[in-house]
Amino acid sequence: MESKADRSTSSFDAVKWLVVFVLIAAGVVGNQYFNAESLLYRVLALVALALVAAFVALQTERGRRFATLLKEARVEIRKVVWPTRPELIQTTAIVVVFVLVVALMLWGMDSLISWLVSGVIG
């Protein structure tokens, strides 16, 4: 069952998300309204609005879960064993040769079918 504190937190999260969407909308509308201004100023204003919107979004429950996901993904990325240069070159060469062989087989089948169809049609 949902407690009263959970409901107030979720409704406050809804207000926070509303603020995020209002900030994004203000950025879009402001960018259109101030299109005569310098592009640099508009980009700086959009970046500032995006940072504020991201900060507000990270204060919500979903935002905190998303931040946790990013942290865990970063930990997992550090565990990846990247191939050495010789392994990379060898694997790339195998893929290129395989693609060429399949392309030649398809070209051969296409030519054969084309030759058969032209023989039937006359």
Structure in words:
The protein is mainly alpha-helical and 122 residues long. The protein folds into two domains: 1-80; 83-122. Helix content is 87%, strand content 0%. It has four helices and no strands. It has helices spanning 4-33, 39-58, 61-79, 85-121. The longest helix has 37 residues, at 85-121. It starts with a helix and ends with a helix. The model has no long low-confidence stretch (mean pLDDT 91). Its main location: membrane. Pfam families: SecE.
Task: Give the overall pLDDT as a whole number.
Answer: 91
Instruction: Report the major sheet.
Output: none
Helix content: over 70%
Q: How much strand? A: under 5%
Our measurement of the CA-to-CA distance between the termini, rounded to an integer number of angstroms, reads 78 Å
Core attributes:
single chain, 122 residues, mainly alpha, 2 domains, 87% helix, 0% strand
Structure described in brief:
Its main location: membrane. By secondary structure, the chain is mainly alpha-helical.
Describe the protein's topology.
Elements (H helix, E strand, L loop, with lengths): L3 H30 L5 H20 L2 H19 L5 H37 L1
Pfam family, one: SecE
Function: Essential subunit of the Sec protein translocation channel SecYEG. Clamps together the 2 halves of SecY. May contact the channel plug during translocation.
GO biological process, one term: protein secretion
